[in-house]
Amino acid sequence: MTAQLTDLAKAEGRPKKGGVVTWACAPGFPPAVIFPFTPPERMGTRNVIEFQALMYRTLYYFGNTGKPEVDYDLSIGEEPQWSEDGLTATITVKPWKWSNGETLCADNVLFWVNLMKVKGARYGEYVPGYFPDNCVDYGKVAEDKVYFTFDKAYSKRWMLMNQFSTITPLPKSWDRTAAGPANASGDLADVEAVYEYLMQQQGNAVEEDNAHRTQWAESPIWSTVSGPWRLKSYTQEGIVTFVPNEHYSGPNKPHLDEFRQLPTFSDEEQFEMLKSGRVQVGYLPLSFADGSTDDPTRGGDNPLAQSHKLVPQVVYCIRYISLNFNNPTVAGKLMAQTYLRQALQSSLDQDTAVSEIYQGYAYRQNGPVPMIPATDLVSPGQRGVAWPLPFDVARAKRLLEDNGWDTSRTPAVCVNPGTGPGQAGEGIPAGTKLSILLRYVEGRPALTELMTRFKRAAAEAGIELRLQEVYGSILVAEDAPCVPSEDTPCLWEMCCWNGGWVYHHPTGEIVFKTDAGGNFGHYTDPRADELIQRTVTSDDLDVLYEYQDYIAEQVPVIFTPNFPIRLLEVAHNLRGAEPINPFANIAPENWYYVEDEA
Fold it and tell me: For the chain, first and last CA: distance in Å?
């Protein structure tokens, strides 16, 4: 038992070895990708953090003790050592073991980096021009050491939190094609064929009926793991079962015999499963919360208090509605207009939603940097006030009228086309009706109410929002980052999957920089790119403030109320779920049962 768990045992009861924990997952997002080189359309919490990360550890592990920092005890990589000129980082890889007996090594890291070098556009956190494009040289110093030399000196915190964090070491046994072993870790020429082979073993990442999922547990590829868990089974119905990896080298080894993830299809089903005692861990749907709270990190009354403890899972994230700037129709031209995006943001009443829909479990999101936990990283202009775009339907209406729209009806009609002052903008012809399709994930009553209120207020300003509920996994596959082509018409307009982005360090390059993997709507703005570039080379807070104030005013996404990822409900006899990881990681290896309390 580690020192950490020894302390927990003294405080909360001696851990009981064994047992099964069943976790009821959020509706709509069964894991769709096991290969941890996750494509942009599947780069989400359910795939990456709650599934892949249990089996395949990233080079660095973040936030285990509840603090927004690297946890080096749980990391495969030692702390980076930097050269005096700040250009070269050397990283030592710990001699941990893969489940097949291989020792983790430098080649495992280089395998991943070479994949990024060749196939970066197919990885959801890749940003053109940044890691590894900004490496002028990289390679192996020794069997357990790699080095990276960069084109300029960058912020060391940014490099650690946002760049080295993208690396997931991959085993040598994966470095192969159907014909046999390859050398993607040492030769870029082998990368394409190895990638194609691994994607074949993965199966189609966007098909909902991907039969490969039921074969992942027996696969000689995916059964080689570095994390504390390995996959026991994945049923066609979406039930995922993990068992301990008996070869895991990290300090916190699982106490449980099994960790089972159970799909749900609505908030109502989730609540009934918790109430019946069928699951030990789940979430309290916001629409079922009793009363209200003035602190979303603590929560209020718990209707399941007899059987479960309420633990709000507050993480360092922002939430928003994506806009498709790449839509080839007039809808894409509308998204390109700053005044329209500002009108949309001014039509979303975050404050009322926080109090009436989310009952105080939420908080307003003013811009691109998380508001909770409170830090000095938030621009002074955005702390505690809705700057620069508070809820103001009258202002939204004026913005449209001042830019060529007749708002005497809804949808408003373009009456002054063109690109000059007071005109609607490029590609928006006279007679265009201001009607936008907004698709959002089904099964979440609180989100449905937010969308309904948004539609009502936008209509007062002259904007028609056509709402459509869609099953979550289908929504993110169809309304994905896209470039218009015959195969991908790219016709989605606005999309809300009830999420956003979890940050390590909130510099924004993954979400808002041109062509970044997490830039789902393909927003592009030279000024934004310039400001983002400054944030990654400087630790000056004024530089971060200038970037976020610009993004908040330009509104590349519609910021929505933020709230805990889940109001976790944890069975009373289960321990180890706290403290909550600020980056949304879950650690069921820390969970354990105690003897029934009298």
Answer: 25
pLDDT tens per residue, range 527-566:
999 999 999 999 999 999 999 999 999 999 999 999 998 8
CB 550 within 8 A of CB 534: no
Over the range 256-290, which residues count as b (16 or more CB within 10 Å of their CB) and which as e? Answer: bebbbbbbbeebeebbebbbeeebbbbbbbbbbbe
Q: Name the pTM for this structure.
A: 0.90
Longest dimension (CA), the chain: 75
Tokens of 544: 């971060």
Cis peptide before 411 (omega within 30 of 0): yes
Cβ atoms of residues 400 and 590 within 8 Å: no
Positive or negative: CA dihedral 16, 18, 22, 23: positive
Q: Does residue 499 carry a pLDDT above 60?
A: yes
Q: Are 133 and 120 in contact (CB under 8 A)?
A: yes
Q: Provide the 10 A C-beta neighbour count for residue 221.
A: 16
| Surface-to-core class of residue 157, CB atoms within 10 Å of its CB (0-12 exposed, 13-18 middle, 19+ buried) | middle
CB 510 within 8 Å of CB 490: no
CA-only gyration radius of the chain, Å: 24
CA angle at 398 for the pair 393 and 403, rounded to the nearest 5° = 135
What is the DSSP code string of 495-523? EE-S-EEE-SS---HHHHSTT-TT-TT--
Sign of CA dihedral 34, 37, 41, 44: positive
CB contact at 8 A, 83 and 148:
no
Q: Residues 553, 442, 317, 547: what is their CA dihedral angle, to the nearest 10 degrees?
A: -20
Which tens digit of pLDDT belongs to each residue from 280-319?
999 999 888 877 888 888 888 899 999 999 999 999 999 9
Spacing of C-alpha 149 from chain mean position: 28
Dump pLDDT digits (tens) for 20-29: 999 999 887 8
Q: What is the pLDDT of residues 417-473, one digit of tens each?
A: 999 999 999 999 999 999 999 999 998 999 999 999 999 999 999 999 999 999 998
CA 257, CA 265: separation in Å to the nearest integer?
Answer: 26
* DSSP state at residue 384: S
Alpha carbon 571 to its chain's center: 26
CA distances, 459 to each of 298, 320, 353, 452 (Å): 36, 20, 17, 11
Integer Cα distance of 15 and 25 in angstroms = 25
Distance CA 147, CA 113 (A): 11
State the pLDDT confidence band at 205, using cuts at 50, 70 and 90: confident
Task: Give the pLDDT of residue 236.
Answer: 85
In order, the DSSP letters of 36-80 are SS--GGG-SHHHIIIIIHHHS--SS-B-TTSSSSB-GGG-SBPPP
Residue type, 29: F
What are 11's two structure tokens?
A: 């405080």
Alpha-carbon span 245 to 101, nearest angstrom: 12
Burial 453-489 (b: 16+ CB within 10 A, else e): bbbebbbebbbbbeeeebbbbebbbebbbbeeeeeee
CB 567 within 8 A of CB 310: yes
